[in-house]
Protein backbone atom coordinates (compact mmCIF):
# COMPACT_ATOMS: atom_id res chain seq x y z
CA UNK A 1 0.00 0.00 0.00
CA UNK A 2 2.75 2.41 0.94
CA UNK A 3 4.74 1.77 -2.23
CA UNK A 4 1.59 2.16 -4.37
CA UNK A 5 0.90 5.57 -2.82
CA UNK A 6 4.47 6.67 -3.52
CA UNK A 7 4.22 5.62 -7.16
CA UNK A 8 0.88 7.48 -7.58
CA UNK A 9 2.35 10.61 -6.01
CA UNK A 10 5.36 10.49 -8.32
CA UNK A 11 3.14 10.08 -11.40
CA UNK A 12 1.01 13.02 -10.30
CA UNK A 13 4.10 15.17 -9.79
CA UNK A 14 5.52 14.29 -13.21
CA UNK A 15 2.20 15.16 -14.90
CA UNK A 16 2.05 18.55 -13.13
CA UNK A 17 5.67 19.23 -14.10
CA UNK A 18 4.99 18.47 -17.76
CA UNK A 19 1.89 20.69 -17.69
CA UNK A 20 3.89 23.60 -16.30
CA UNK A 21 6.60 23.10 -18.93
CA UNK A 22 3.99 23.03 -21.71
CA UNK A 23 2.37 26.25 -20.50
CA UNK A 24 5.69 28.01 -20.09
CA UNK A 25 6.72 27.11 -23.64
CA UNK A 26 3.70 28.90 -25.17
CA UNK A 27 4.80 32.49 -25.57
CA UNK A 28 3.57 35.42 -27.60
CA UNK A 29 5.51 35.87 -30.84
CA UNK A 30 8.35 38.37 -30.61
CA UNK A 31 10.33 40.29 -33.19
CA UNK A 32 13.74 38.90 -34.24
CA UNK A 33 16.54 40.14 -31.99
CA UNK A 34 19.51 41.55 -33.95
CA UNK A 35 22.86 41.77 -32.21
CA UNK A 36 24.16 45.33 -32.42
CA UNK A 37 27.51 44.63 -34.14
CA UNK A 38 29.08 47.89 -35.18
CA UNK A 39 31.30 48.44 -38.17
CA UNK A 40 33.25 50.94 -36.13
CA UNK A 41 35.05 50.78 -32.80
CA UNK A 42 34.41 47.06 -32.41
CA UNK A 43 36.96 45.60 -30.01
CA UNK A 44 39.22 42.90 -31.45
CA UNK A 45 42.77 41.84 -30.70
CA UNK A 46 45.56 43.76 -32.39
CA UNK A 47 47.16 41.91 -35.27
CA UNK A 48 50.78 42.36 -36.34
CA UNK A 49 51.38 43.25 -39.97
CA UNK A 50 51.60 40.09 -42.12
CA UNK A 51 54.78 39.13 -43.92
CA UNK A 52 55.72 36.31 -46.25
CA UNK A 53 57.50 34.37 -43.49
CA UNK A 54 57.76 34.31 -39.69
CA UNK A 55 58.72 37.63 -38.11
CA UNK A 56 59.35 38.51 -34.44
CA UNK A 57 56.08 40.46 -34.29
CA UNK A 58 53.95 37.70 -35.81
CA UNK A 59 55.79 34.62 -34.47
CA UNK A 60 57.36 35.57 -31.13
CA UNK A 61 57.39 31.86 -30.23
CA UNK A 62 59.83 31.24 -33.10
CA UNK A 63 61.97 34.39 -33.31
CA UNK A 64 63.52 36.72 -30.78
CA UNK A 65 63.17 40.48 -31.42
CA UNK A 66 66.71 40.73 -32.81
CA UNK A 67 66.42 37.82 -35.28
CA UNK A 68 65.73 37.89 -39.01
CA UNK A 69 65.10 34.15 -39.24
CA UNK A 70 64.74 31.71 -36.32
CA UNK A 71 68.00 31.76 -34.38
CA UNK A 72 69.83 34.00 -36.86
CA UNK A 73 70.22 37.81 -36.55
CA UNK A 74 70.46 40.05 -39.63
CA UNK A 75 74.15 40.69 -38.87
CA UNK A 76 74.92 37.04 -39.70
CA UNK A 77 73.51 37.43 -43.22
CA UNK A 78 75.28 40.77 -43.61
CA UNK A 79 78.60 39.14 -42.71
CA UNK A 80 78.04 36.32 -45.21
CA UNK A 81 77.37 38.75 -48.07
CA UNK A 82 80.40 40.84 -47.14
CA UNK A 83 82.69 37.81 -46.98
CA UNK A 84 81.47 36.64 -50.36
CA UNK A 85 82.05 39.99 -52.06
CA UNK A 86 85.47 40.39 -50.44
CA UNK A 87 86.47 36.95 -51.70
CA UNK A 88 85.41 37.84 -55.25
CA UNK A 89 87.26 41.15 -55.37
CA UNK A 90 86.48 44.55 -56.88
CA UNK A 91 84.49 44.73 -60.07
CA UNK A 92 82.45 41.64 -59.22
CA UNK A 93 78.72 41.15 -59.55
CA UNK A 94 76.60 38.32 -58.16
CA UNK A 95 73.22 37.17 -59.44
CA UNK A 96 71.69 34.42 -57.33
CA UNK A 97 68.24 33.10 -58.12
CA UNK A 98 65.97 31.74 -55.40
CA UNK A 99 63.87 28.61 -55.53
CA UNK A 100 60.58 28.04 -57.28
CA UNK A 101 57.50 26.10 -56.23
CA UNK A 102 57.67 22.55 -57.56
CA UNK A 103 54.56 20.68 -58.65
CA UNK A 104 53.75 17.07 -57.86
CA UNK A 105 51.05 16.99 -60.54
CA UNK A 106 49.19 19.74 -62.35
CA UNK A 107 48.36 22.35 -59.68
CA UNK A 108 49.26 20.15 -56.69
CA UNK A 109 52.42 21.64 -55.24
CA UNK A 110 55.13 20.37 -52.96
CA UNK A 111 55.89 22.37 -49.86
CA UNK A 112 58.30 25.13 -50.85
CA UNK A 113 61.96 24.98 -49.84
CA UNK A 114 64.20 27.92 -50.64
CA UNK A 115 67.36 27.51 -52.72
CA UNK A 116 70.11 27.15 -50.13
CA UNK A 117 72.69 29.54 -51.63
CA UNK A 118 70.04 32.25 -51.92
CA UNK A 119 68.77 31.65 -48.38
CA UNK A 120 72.32 31.60 -47.00
CA UNK A 121 72.86 35.15 -48.28
CA UNK A 122 69.42 36.68 -47.60
CA UNK A 123 67.22 34.71 -45.20
CA UNK A 124 64.37 35.48 -47.61
CA UNK A 125 61.98 32.52 -47.74
CA UNK A 126 59.53 33.27 -50.55
CA UNK A 127 59.67 31.66 -54.01
CA UNK A 128 60.62 33.37 -57.27
CA UNK A 129 63.06 35.92 -55.87
CA UNK A 130 66.50 36.98 -57.10
CA UNK A 131 69.49 38.55 -55.35
CA UNK A 132 71.93 40.94 -57.03
CA UNK A 133 75.15 42.03 -55.33
CA UNK A 134 77.49 44.59 -56.91
CA UNK A 135 80.94 45.55 -55.72
CA UNK A 136 80.87 49.13 -54.36
CA UNK A 137 84.10 49.84 -52.42
CA UNK A 138 83.17 53.47 -51.76
CA UNK A 139 80.05 52.55 -49.76
CA UNK A 140 79.93 51.66 -46.08
CA UNK A 141 78.95 48.11 -46.95
CA UNK A 142 81.46 47.71 -49.71
CA UNK A 143 78.76 46.33 -51.98
CA UNK A 144 75.26 47.14 -53.18
CA UNK A 145 72.41 44.77 -52.29
CA UNK A 146 69.32 44.48 -54.52
CA UNK A 147 66.38 42.09 -54.24
CA UNK A 148 63.76 41.22 -56.84
CA UNK A 149 60.77 39.80 -54.98
CA UNK A 150 57.13 38.86 -55.61
CA UNK A 151 55.05 42.04 -55.27
CA UNK A 152 52.16 42.27 -52.84
CA UNK A 153 48.96 41.11 -54.51
CA UNK A 154 45.50 40.86 -52.93
CA UNK A 155 44.44 37.87 -55.04
CA UNK A 156 47.62 35.90 -54.31
CA UNK A 157 47.38 36.82 -50.62
CA UNK A 158 43.91 35.23 -50.49
CA UNK A 159 45.25 31.91 -51.80
CA UNK A 160 48.87 31.82 -50.63
CA UNK A 161 49.21 34.33 -47.82
CA UNK A 162 50.85 37.72 -47.56
CA UNK A 163 54.25 38.61 -48.95
CA UNK A 164 57.01 40.87 -47.75
CA UNK A 165 56.81 42.80 -51.00
CA UNK A 166 59.22 45.41 -52.26
CA UNK A 167 58.92 47.51 -49.10
CA UNK A 168 59.56 44.53 -46.83
CA UNK A 169 62.63 43.56 -48.85
CA UNK A 170 64.15 46.89 -47.82
CA UNK A 171 62.78 47.44 -44.31
CA UNK A 172 63.01 43.84 -43.08
CA UNK A 173 65.75 42.22 -45.16
CA UNK A 174 67.99 45.26 -45.43
CA UNK A 175 68.23 45.56 -49.21
CA UNK A 176 69.57 48.83 -50.58
CA UNK A 177 67.10 48.58 -53.42
CA UNK A 178 64.18 46.30 -54.30
CA UNK A 179 61.96 45.72 -57.32
CA UNK A 180 59.08 43.44 -58.27
CA UNK A 181 60.36 40.18 -59.69
CA UNK A 182 58.27 40.84 -62.79
CA UNK A 183 60.79 43.51 -63.75
CA UNK A 184 63.86 41.27 -63.49
CA UNK A 185 64.18 40.70 -67.24
CA UNK A 186 64.13 44.47 -67.72
CA UNK A 187 67.01 45.04 -65.32
CA UNK A 188 69.13 42.01 -66.24
CA UNK A 189 70.68 43.45 -69.42
CA UNK A 190 72.18 46.35 -67.46
CA UNK A 191 73.55 44.00 -64.80
CA UNK A 192 74.99 41.67 -67.42
CA UNK A 193 76.51 44.41 -69.57
CA UNK A 194 79.96 44.13 -67.99
CA UNK A 195 83.26 45.73 -68.87
CA UNK A 196 86.55 43.93 -69.45
CA UNK A 197 87.70 44.33 -65.82
CA UNK A 198 84.50 42.96 -64.30
CA UNK A 199 83.35 39.42 -63.55
CA UNK A 200 79.82 38.23 -63.00
CA UNK A 201 79.06 35.22 -60.80
CA UNK A 202 75.65 33.73 -61.42
CA UNK A 203 73.55 30.83 -60.22
CA UNK A 204 70.51 29.40 -61.91
CA UNK A 205 67.40 28.33 -59.99
CA UNK A 206 67.66 24.75 -58.67
CA UNK A 207 65.43 23.24 -61.34
CA UNK A 208 67.83 24.35 -64.07
CA UNK A 209 71.19 24.02 -62.36
CA UNK A 210 73.37 20.97 -62.58
CA UNK A 211 73.81 18.65 -59.62
CA UNK A 212 75.30 15.29 -58.80
CA UNK A 213 71.96 13.60 -59.38
CA UNK A 214 70.61 15.39 -62.45
CA UNK A 215 71.64 16.24 -65.98
CA UNK A 216 73.23 19.67 -66.49
CA UNK A 217 70.99 22.41 -67.77
CA UNK A 218 71.24 22.75 -71.56
CA UNK A 219 71.66 26.42 -72.53
CA UNK A 220 69.93 27.95 -75.54
CA UNK A 221 71.05 27.09 -79.05
CA UNK A 222 73.98 29.10 -80.49
CA UNK A 223 71.62 31.22 -82.61
CA UNK A 224 69.32 31.88 -79.66
CA UNK A 225 72.26 32.56 -77.35
CA UNK A 226 73.63 35.07 -79.81
CA UNK A 227 70.38 37.01 -79.85
CA UNK A 228 70.16 36.92 -76.06
CA UNK A 229 73.69 38.23 -75.71
CA UNK A 230 72.81 41.09 -78.03
CA UNK A 231 69.94 41.82 -75.70
CA UNK A 232 72.40 42.00 -72.77
CA UNK A 233 74.50 44.59 -74.57
CA UNK A 234 71.39 46.62 -75.52
CA UNK A 235 72.16 46.04 -79.17
CA UNK A 236 69.43 46.94 -81.63
CA UNK A 237 70.93 44.94 -84.48
CA UNK A 238 68.84 41.85 -83.80
CA UNK A 239 65.53 41.50 -85.54
CA UNK A 240 62.33 41.54 -83.44
CA UNK A 241 61.71 37.90 -84.27
CA UNK A 242 65.03 36.93 -82.66
CA UNK A 243 64.44 38.78 -79.38
CA UNK A 244 61.73 38.15 -76.87
CA UNK A 245 61.70 40.58 -73.94
CA UNK A 246 59.61 38.06 -72.02
CA UNK A 247 62.34 35.41 -71.98
CA UNK A 248 62.48 33.69 -68.57
CA UNK A 249 65.30 35.12 -66.44
CA UNK A 250 66.95 31.71 -66.09
CA UNK A 251 67.37 31.60 -69.89
CA UNK A 252 69.06 34.98 -69.82
CA UNK A 253 71.40 33.83 -67.07
CA UNK A 254 72.15 30.57 -68.83
CA UNK A 255 73.29 32.55 -71.83
CA UNK A 256 75.25 34.91 -69.61
CA UNK A 257 77.20 32.01 -68.15
CA UNK A 258 78.56 31.24 -71.60
CA UNK A 259 80.40 34.58 -71.81
CA UNK A 260 84.11 34.87 -71.01
CA UNK A 261 83.48 37.24 -68.09
CA UNK A 262 80.94 35.00 -66.36
CA UNK A 263 81.58 32.29 -63.79
CA UNK A 264 79.31 30.00 -61.79
CA UNK A 265 78.61 31.13 -58.23
CA UNK A 266 78.65 27.60 -56.78
CA UNK A 267 82.32 27.29 -55.87
CA UNK A 268 82.96 30.65 -54.17
CA UNK A 269 79.78 30.52 -52.09
CA UNK A 270 80.30 26.89 -51.12
CA UNK A 271 83.80 27.77 -49.94
CA UNK A 272 82.04 29.98 -47.38
CA UNK A 273 79.21 27.57 -46.58
CA UNK A 274 81.66 24.78 -45.74
CA UNK A 275 82.87 26.65 -42.65
CA UNK A 276 79.99 26.66 -40.18
CA UNK A 277 79.66 29.65 -37.87
CA UNK A 278 78.86 29.20 -34.15
CA UNK A 279 75.22 30.04 -34.94
CA UNK A 280 75.10 27.37 -37.64
CA UNK A 281 76.71 24.77 -35.39
CA UNK A 282 74.13 25.53 -32.71
CA UNK A 283 71.34 25.04 -35.26
CA UNK A 284 72.83 21.76 -36.47
CA UNK A 285 73.24 20.52 -32.90
CA UNK A 286 69.56 21.19 -32.25
CA UNK A 287 68.59 19.33 -35.43
CA UNK A 288 70.78 16.40 -34.38
CA UNK A 289 69.35 16.37 -30.85
CA UNK A 290 65.79 16.26 -32.19
CA UNK A 291 66.63 13.41 -34.55
CA UNK A 292 68.58 11.54 -31.86
CA UNK A 293 65.59 11.63 -29.51
CA UNK A 294 63.33 10.42 -32.32
CA UNK A 295 65.68 7.50 -33.05
CA UNK A 296 65.54 6.45 -29.40
CA UNK A 297 61.74 6.62 -29.39
CA UNK A 298 61.52 4.48 -32.52
CA UNK A 299 63.74 1.82 -30.95
CA UNK A 300 61.25 1.60 -28.09
CA UNK A 301 58.23 1.62 -30.42
CA UNK A 302 59.50 -1.17 -32.68
CA UNK A 303 57.93 -4.54 -31.95
CA UNK A 304 57.37 -7.74 -33.92
CA UNK A 305 54.57 -7.43 -36.49
CA UNK A 306 54.65 -3.64 -36.62
CA UNK A 307 55.09 -2.19 -40.08
CA UNK A 308 58.13 -0.27 -41.30
CA UNK A 309 55.78 2.57 -42.24
CA UNK A 310 54.65 2.85 -38.62
CA UNK A 311 58.24 3.36 -37.54
CA UNK A 312 58.66 6.02 -40.20
CA UNK A 313 55.51 7.80 -38.99
CA UNK A 314 56.69 7.61 -35.38
CA UNK A 315 60.04 9.15 -36.28
CA UNK A 316 58.41 12.02 -38.16
CA UNK A 317 55.92 12.62 -35.34
CA UNK A 318 58.62 12.72 -32.68
CA UNK A 319 60.64 15.21 -34.75
CA UNK A 320 57.63 17.46 -35.37
CA UNK A 321 56.69 17.48 -31.69
CA UNK A 322 60.20 18.70 -30.87
CA UNK A 323 60.11 21.61 -33.32
CA UNK A 324 61.44 20.23 -36.60
CA UNK A 325 59.94 21.76 -39.71
CA UNK A 326 60.25 18.74 -41.99
CA UNK A 327 62.34 15.68 -42.75
CA UNK A 328 65.72 16.33 -44.35
CA UNK A 329 65.17 13.39 -46.74
CA UNK A 330 62.94 10.37 -47.28
CA UNK A 331 63.58 8.05 -44.31
CA UNK A 332 65.05 4.60 -44.84
CA UNK A 333 63.30 2.07 -42.57
CA UNK A 334 64.76 -1.26 -43.68
CA UNK A 335 64.03 -4.41 -41.72
CA UNK A 336 65.78 -7.71 -42.36
CA UNK A 337 67.26 -8.16 -45.83
CA UNK A 338 65.74 -4.86 -46.97
CA UNK A 339 68.80 -3.28 -45.36
CA UNK A 340 70.92 -4.70 -48.20
CA UNK A 341 69.36 -1.98 -50.40
CA UNK A 342 71.32 1.18 -49.55
CA UNK A 343 68.49 3.62 -50.34
CA UNK A 344 65.52 1.42 -49.49
CA UNK A 345 62.52 3.72 -49.01
CA UNK A 346 59.48 1.55 -49.75
CA UNK A 347 59.08 1.01 -46.01
CA UNK A 348 56.17 -1.37 -46.56
CA UNK A 349 57.21 -4.63 -44.86
CA UNK A 350 56.32 -6.15 -41.49
CA UNK A 351 58.94 -6.49 -38.74
CA UNK A 352 60.08 -10.01 -37.96
CA UNK A 353 61.16 -10.71 -34.36
CA UNK A 354 64.48 -12.19 -35.53
CA UNK A 355 65.46 -9.23 -37.71
CA UNK A 356 67.47 -6.07 -37.36
CA UNK A 357 66.05 -2.71 -38.45
CA UNK A 358 68.26 -0.12 -40.14
CA UNK A 359 66.85 3.41 -39.92
CA UNK A 360 68.54 6.23 -41.82
CA UNK A 361 66.55 9.34 -40.96
CA UNK A 362 67.04 12.94 -39.92
CA UNK A 363 64.99 16.09 -39.57
CA UNK A 364 65.48 19.59 -40.87
CA UNK A 365 65.50 22.39 -38.31
CA UNK A 366 65.46 26.01 -39.49
CA UNK A 367 66.99 25.05 -42.86
CA UNK A 368 69.73 22.84 -41.37
CA UNK A 369 69.76 19.09 -41.94
CA UNK A 370 70.56 16.18 -39.68
CA UNK A 371 71.60 12.77 -40.98
CA UNK A 372 71.75 9.82 -38.56
CA UNK A 373 71.64 6.05 -39.09
CA UNK A 374 71.08 3.47 -36.39
CA UNK A 375 70.59 -0.31 -36.53
CA UNK A 376 68.82 -2.24 -33.77
CA UNK A 377 67.16 -5.62 -33.07
CA UNK A 378 63.38 -5.95 -33.29
CA UNK A 379 63.44 -8.35 -30.32
CA UNK A 380 65.35 -5.89 -28.15
CA UNK A 381 68.40 -8.18 -27.91
CA UNK A 382 71.11 -8.77 -30.51
CA UNK A 383 71.70 -12.38 -31.49
CA UNK A 384 75.33 -13.50 -31.41
CA UNK A 385 75.97 -13.05 -35.18
CA UNK A 386 74.14 -9.71 -35.12
CA UNK A 387 76.21 -8.58 -32.14
CA UNK A 388 79.50 -9.62 -33.78
CA UNK A 389 78.79 -7.85 -37.06
CA UNK A 390 77.44 -4.76 -35.29
CA UNK A 391 80.56 -4.59 -33.13
CA UNK A 392 82.78 -4.79 -36.22
CA UNK A 393 81.01 -1.83 -37.85
CA UNK A 394 80.88 0.11 -34.58
CA UNK A 395 84.62 -0.26 -33.93
CA UNK A 396 85.46 0.98 -37.43
CA UNK A 397 83.00 3.87 -37.13
CA UNK A 398 84.35 5.04 -33.78
CA UNK A 399 87.94 4.93 -35.02
CA UNK A 400 87.01 7.04 -38.06
CA UNK A 401 85.32 9.58 -35.76
CA UNK A 402 88.45 9.66 -33.58
CA UNK A 403 90.52 10.65 -36.62
CA UNK A 404 88.36 13.72 -37.34
CA UNK A 405 90.78 16.26 -35.91
CA UNK A 406 91.99 19.59 -37.23
CA UNK A 407 95.57 18.68 -36.32
CA UNK A 408 95.35 15.45 -38.30
CA UNK A 409 94.89 17.32 -41.57
CA UNK A 410 92.74 14.52 -42.96
CA UNK A 411 90.63 14.48 -46.11
CA UNK A 412 87.38 12.72 -46.95
CA UNK A 413 89.27 10.37 -49.27
CA UNK A 414 91.79 9.46 -46.57
CA UNK A 415 89.02 8.78 -44.07
CA UNK A 416 87.25 6.54 -46.57
CA UNK A 417 90.39 4.54 -47.31
CA UNK A 418 90.94 4.14 -43.58
CA UNK A 419 87.38 2.89 -43.10
CA UNK A 420 87.90 0.20 -45.76
CA UNK A 421 91.04 -1.05 -44.02
CA UNK A 422 89.40 -0.96 -40.60
CA UNK A 423 86.37 -2.92 -41.78
CA UNK A 424 88.60 -5.46 -43.51
CA UNK A 425 90.44 -6.20 -40.26
CA UNK A 426 87.29 -6.26 -38.14
CA UNK A 427 85.49 -8.64 -40.52
CA UNK A 428 88.47 -10.99 -40.70
CA UNK A 429 88.34 -11.30 -36.91
CA UNK A 430 84.79 -12.69 -37.05
CA UNK A 431 85.44 -15.24 -39.77
CA UNK A 432 85.27 -13.42 -43.11
CA UNK A 433 87.97 -14.37 -45.62
CA UNK A 434 88.31 -11.19 -47.62
CA UNK A 435 90.41 -8.94 -49.79
CA UNK A 436 90.11 -5.15 -49.86
CA UNK A 437 88.29 -5.56 -53.17
CA UNK A 438 85.62 -7.73 -51.53
CA UNK A 439 84.96 -4.98 -49.01
CA UNK A 440 84.69 -2.09 -51.47
CA UNK A 441 82.93 -3.91 -54.30
CA UNK A 442 80.39 -5.94 -52.35
CA UNK A 443 80.16 -5.52 -48.60
CA UNK A 444 80.73 -1.76 -48.34
CA UNK A 445 79.96 -0.22 -51.75
CA UNK A 446 79.31 3.40 -50.71
CA UNK A 447 81.54 6.28 -49.65
CA UNK A 448 82.15 6.90 -45.96
CA UNK A 449 81.28 10.56 -45.75
CA UNK A 450 79.83 13.76 -47.13
CA UNK A 451 79.59 17.36 -45.96
CA UNK A 452 76.46 18.34 -44.08
CA UNK A 453 74.67 21.67 -43.62
CA UNK A 454 71.71 23.42 -45.20
CA UNK A 455 71.82 20.72 -47.85
CA UNK A 456 71.96 17.08 -46.85
CA UNK A 457 74.94 16.56 -49.18
CA UNK A 458 76.33 20.02 -48.59
CA UNK A 459 78.82 21.77 -50.87
CA UNK A 460 79.08 19.03 -53.53
CA UNK A 461 81.72 20.96 -55.50
CA UNK A 462 84.22 20.51 -52.67
CA UNK A 463 87.07 18.18 -53.61
CA UNK A 464 87.23 15.01 -51.51
CA UNK A 465 91.01 15.42 -51.39
CA UNK A 466 90.75 18.83 -49.69
CA UNK A 467 91.96 19.01 -46.09
CA UNK A 468 89.16 19.18 -43.54
CA UNK A 469 89.34 22.23 -41.29
CA UNK A 470 87.70 23.74 -38.23
CA UNK A 471 84.02 24.44 -38.89
CA UNK A 472 83.51 21.55 -41.31
CA UNK A 473 80.66 19.16 -40.50
CA UNK A 474 80.67 15.73 -42.11
CA UNK A 475 78.94 12.37 -41.78
CA UNK A 476 80.80 9.23 -40.73
CA UNK A 477 78.76 6.25 -41.94
CA UNK A 478 80.50 2.93 -42.58
CA UNK A 479 78.25 -0.04 -43.27
CA UNK A 480 78.36 -3.73 -44.08
CA UNK A 481 75.72 -5.45 -46.23
CA UNK A 482 76.13 -9.23 -46.47
CA UNK A 483 74.39 -10.80 -49.49
CA UNK A 484 73.19 -14.40 -49.69
CA UNK A 485 76.51 -15.56 -51.11
CA UNK A 486 78.38 -18.58 -49.75
CA UNK A 487 81.74 -16.84 -50.12
CA UNK A 488 80.70 -15.11 -46.88
CA UNK A 489 79.87 -16.84 -43.56
CA UNK A 490 76.27 -18.07 -43.64
CA UNK A 491 75.46 -16.77 -40.15
CA UNK A 492 75.71 -13.21 -41.49
CA UNK A 493 73.69 -13.65 -44.69
CA UNK A 494 70.98 -11.00 -45.12
CA UNK A 495 72.35 -8.69 -42.43
CA UNK A 496 72.74 -5.01 -43.24
CA UNK A 497 74.26 -2.70 -40.63
CA UNK A 498 75.14 0.98 -40.95
CA UNK A 499 76.04 3.40 -38.15
CA UNK A 500 76.13 7.09 -39.01
CA UNK A 501 77.00 10.14 -36.94
CA UNK A 502 77.39 13.84 -37.67
CA UNK A 503 80.85 15.10 -36.73
CA UNK A 504 82.00 18.72 -36.46
CA UNK A 505 85.69 19.61 -36.69
CA UNK A 506 86.61 21.84 -33.74
CA UNK A 507 89.89 23.03 -32.26
CA UNK A 508 89.23 20.73 -29.29
CA UNK A 509 88.75 17.63 -31.41
CA UNK A 510 85.77 15.91 -33.04
CA UNK A 511 82.36 16.98 -31.73
CA UNK A 512 79.72 14.31 -32.41
CA UNK A 513 76.52 16.30 -32.90
CA UNK A 514 74.43 13.11 -32.89
CA UNK A 515 75.95 11.67 -29.71
CA UNK A 516 72.54 11.43 -28.01
CA UNK A 517 71.30 8.76 -30.42
CA UNK A 518 71.89 5.34 -28.76
CA UNK A 519 74.84 3.62 -30.43
CA UNK A 520 76.66 1.34 -28.01
CA UNK A 521 75.12 -2.14 -27.81
CA UNK A 522 74.13 -1.72 -24.17
CA UNK A 523 72.41 1.59 -24.94
CA UNK A 524 70.65 0.30 -28.05
CA UNK A 525 69.24 -2.69 -26.18
CA UNK A 526 68.21 -0.46 -23.27
CA UNK A 527 66.38 1.89 -25.65
CA UNK A 528 64.60 -1.03 -27.30
CA UNK A 529 63.46 -2.30 -23.90
CA UNK A 530 62.24 1.11 -22.71
CA UNK A 531 64.94 1.54 -20.10
CA UNK A 532 65.97 4.98 -21.39
CA UNK A 533 62.47 6.54 -21.23
UniProtKB/TrEMBL annotation:
GO biological process: proteolysis
InterPro entries: Aminopep_P_N (IPR007865), Creatin/AminoP/Spt16_N (IPR029149), Creatinase/aminopeptidase-like (IPR036005), Pept_M24 (IPR000994), X-Pro_dipept-like (IPR052433)
Classification via SUPFAM superfamilies: Creatinase/aminopeptidase, Creatinase/prolidase N-terminal domain
Cofactor(s) essential for the protein: Mn(2+)
GO MF annotation: an example: metalloaminopeptidase activity
Domain Aminopeptidase P N-terminal: 72-211
GO CC annotations on file: mitochondrion
Pfam family, one: AMP_N
Compositionally biased intervals (Polar residues): 19-44
Hydrolase among keywords: yes
Region (Disordered): 1-80
Keyword tags: Hydrolase, Manganese, Metal-binding
Family as reported in the entry's similarity comment: Belongs to the peptidase M24B family.
PANTHER family: XAA-PRO AMINOPEPTIDASE 3 (PTHR43226)
Protein name as annotated: Aminopeptidase P N-terminal domain-containing protein
Lineage: Eukaryota, Fungi, Dikarya, Basidiomycota, Agaricomycotina
Amino acid sequence: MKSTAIRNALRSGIKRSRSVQARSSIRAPTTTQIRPYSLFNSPHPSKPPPYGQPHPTSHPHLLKPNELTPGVPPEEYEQRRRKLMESLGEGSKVICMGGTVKLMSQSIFYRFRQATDFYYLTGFDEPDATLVLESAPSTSRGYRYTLFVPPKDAHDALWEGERAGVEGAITIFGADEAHPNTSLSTYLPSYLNISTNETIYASLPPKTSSSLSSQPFVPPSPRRRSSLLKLFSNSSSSSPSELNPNDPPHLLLAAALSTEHAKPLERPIQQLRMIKSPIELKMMKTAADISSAAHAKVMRFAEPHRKERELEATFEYECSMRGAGRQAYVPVVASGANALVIHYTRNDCVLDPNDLVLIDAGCEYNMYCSDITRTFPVSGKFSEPQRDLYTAVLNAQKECVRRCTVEGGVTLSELHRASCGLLLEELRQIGFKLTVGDVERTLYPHFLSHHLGSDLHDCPTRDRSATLVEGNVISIEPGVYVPYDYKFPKAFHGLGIRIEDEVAFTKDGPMVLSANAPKEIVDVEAACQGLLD
